[in-house]
Amino acid sequence: MxxxxxxxxxxxxxxxASLARAATYAPCPDSDALPILKGSVCTTVIMPLSYxxxxxxxxxEIRLFVRQFPAKGPSKGTVWLVAGGPGESGAxxxxxxxxLRSSFPDFDLMIPDHRGTGYSSRLCPxxxxxxxxxxxxxxxxxxxxxxxxxxEHPERAGNFSMTTAAYDxxxxxSTSNLDKPVYVYGVSYGTxxxxxxxxxxxxxxxGVILDSLVPLQTAAQWDLSHRSHAVDDVGRTVLAGCDKDxxxxxxxxxxxxxxxxxVLAMMREQPILLAKIPGKDLKRFLGSMLDVxxxxxxxxxxxxxxxxxxxxxxxxxLQTLQDAGKQFGEFPQSPPSIPLVSIISAxxxxxxxxxxxxxxxxxxxxxxxxxxxxxLLVQPLFPSYPRDxxxxxxxxxxxxxxxxxxxxxxxxxxxxxxxHIAALKKFSKVGLVSLPSAPHFILWxxxxxxxRYARNFVQGGTLAxxxxxxxxxxx
Length: 475
Prior knowledge:
This protein is α/β, with parallel strands linked by helices and 475 residues long.
């Protein structure tokens, strides 16, 4: 489905804007359910299912859920906060409310669930309902009925495309109080969605903050099918760091990679040793640890513990990962939409559509750390949609941009961010905050650094490049 700006009449655009502005906020039904949600107000905004048909026929409607955390005093402006994923709802940002308030003091914080996620309209409304057997996540027979429903209605995938979501975001932003500054923050896939929104024409945005900027869509070495290679690069860097650390190296007794290769060989020869490893795959389990700084620092110690068959370090790491995940999974709309992840990933960010399971297996043999994401791209359960006119391009008119990039990011590689920034700098001012030891999602992994530079940005500070050291994850 090709979505083209020419299809829109001035009347259609005004109609959408008027629908969005008509939304009124009221206390959220769950505002007393958890302390963090106290004082939040919510609304449901009606948008067309298909923007391409809007100028020609009455639109089928979808609903977008938006939660607002109003400024505690007089509001200085609005910050729209766009979650990643692409299947994550805005609930993934709720746990960071204290950091967000510190970073954007006296701003109204607006957190939408983009289409296909959270409390907004879903790809499979019945199976992804929070009231379904698996809640917002697919469970049991829903793994059959949801793909079957979308196979019968493949056009629905195109109605949940990145560009369609970008039109949603553009229209939501238009509901801001435009007499005051309007900023937009996006993380991971959210950076891609924000940049797609900026391709759609003039939008009343004062400034943009991109956290963990994704690579350019045309950068083959960093597309999602190569995610395991990005994970492997960071994992090897962690092992090399152990060799340079006196305490860690003494504990290992020799090069960390040598010990790790020996452990991998042990587990190939005795698969029973993998019984307690989540997924029974050590490479992918260690790859998942790279996202959590506290867990990442324990990787060499876990490897040595596995070699000695003690098991104590594994229990500690599992608890660390569980504690990190708990704060993001306590809301009913928290589970990511796997159908949306699959559809957008395959349609927008996979440059090797003919990749096979055998290809991945051969690549995996050369890696020490890996990701499960490329496996989802091989024979996907859900349909994809054709790429549109915006694919692989960057916006040419946009306000100043501040980018946060972790130099040990296993999901959106630092070099990929640099390449993307170079393309953006041809058209506007872009400042970069590099964090030498940070992984993905700087708002969460390095909140003190994020707050320092984000606050300066929205308060009108000079846009420049900086390096920020990473301390504990509390500001």
